[in-house]
Amino acid sequence: MNMKDTRNLRDQNRDKILAVFMERELCTKNQLALASSLTLTTVDNILQELIDDNKVKKEMLKDNDKITECYSLNKDFCRFLTISIIKEFRRVNIIYRISNLADEIIYSDEVIKKVVKINDIYDVINIVLVRFDNIKVIGISIPGIINDGKVTSTGLVNFNDIDLYLLLKNKYDQKIILGNDVNVAAIGFYLTQESYQNVCLLFQPGDGYGGVGTVINGQLLTGKTNCAGEVQYLPLSNEDQLKLLQTPDGTIELLSKIVACLTAIVNPEIVAISCTNLEKASDLDDCLATMIPAKYLPRIVKISNLSKYVLNGLQYICKESLKMNYLKEK
Questions:
Q1: Number of other residues whose CB lies within 10 A of the CB of residue 210
Q2: Which of 87, 95, 320, 81 is nearest to 191 (CA)?
Q3: Could you tell me which residues come within 8 angstroms of residue 255 by beta carbon, excluding any fewer than 6 positions away?
Q4: How many whole angstroms separate alpha carbon 186 and alpha carbon 179?
């Protein structure tokens, strides 16, 4: 085995140990060895490296008269920058926050623009990188279809048909995660639901086409080209979707038809709706009753803070990316 192979094996073993720490708050050496399938000698060597790098901390826990040597991740050795870009009416909200491995929010802020440009995203990232260290992953959600890093069919005028991933990857050393805003919000919403395994989240802006994120048994449905959930392509009626949004009754009709489509296709247990034009979820009851028998319909709830679910979903995706061989140093 040459030196390169030895280095690669050591890096792989470090990743195994760090992946265990991502799942458990505290570990003994024996627990690490069992969970990673590594020998105690290997675990001992890797732990010393991680302690020297300030990635892992040693703790002495006392239980009655017994003292146990345990180890835990330094929660701040890796931080995430998550950026949510949400278009609503005539403005665009850029909401961002910095969090650590313990899901603690270190900093959060918001920028409101009439029109957002790529330089606005650069500005947020640059400011964060100057003020905070250990930013390892940058997660960004944006309206539209994101396929192979390219953004299409978005309501953001300066982002159609651009390779956003490549632009960011060429500029920053951090790992870049991109996601459709509603898909990411659906993940964030799913994580808050202990009783439901099949959920949909419908975001319907007051002046544009809606989108649906769907999670079935813990799996996000995106489709062949990440087009799943693009409501603008549903042949809902002869009336234009945007025209229906101009009145309260039209909004109820449009939302009810979308829920009916979701019921017929994926039959979710719950549908969360984010729509400023909808006063309460029960407003859809009468309209839905004319479309589908009540026994087949999902529970419908209205949510008001979409960005909360987006940022929580991004946080989860960023942390999951670390489990896939990113914890080692570049």
A1: 22
A2: 320
A3: 202, 204, 273, 275, 278, 284
A4: 11
Which distant-in-sequence residues (6+ apart) come within 8 Å of 146 by Cβ?
164, 178, 179, 180, 226
Using left for φ > 0, alpha for ψ between -120 and 50, and beta otherwise, residue 257 falls in alpha
Strands 211-216 and 145-147: unpaired
Residue 218, beta-bridge partner list: none
Distance, CA of 307 to CA of 310 (rounded, Å): 5
d(CA 18, CA 10): 12
In contact, 284 and 252? CB cutoff 8 Å: yes
Q: Which among 3, 330, 8, 6 is positioned nearest to 175, based on CA atoms?
A: 330
**Amino acid symbol at 208:** G
> For the segment 89-110, what is each residue's pLDDT rounded down to a tens digit?
778 999 999 999 888 999 999 9
**pTM confidence score:** 0.84
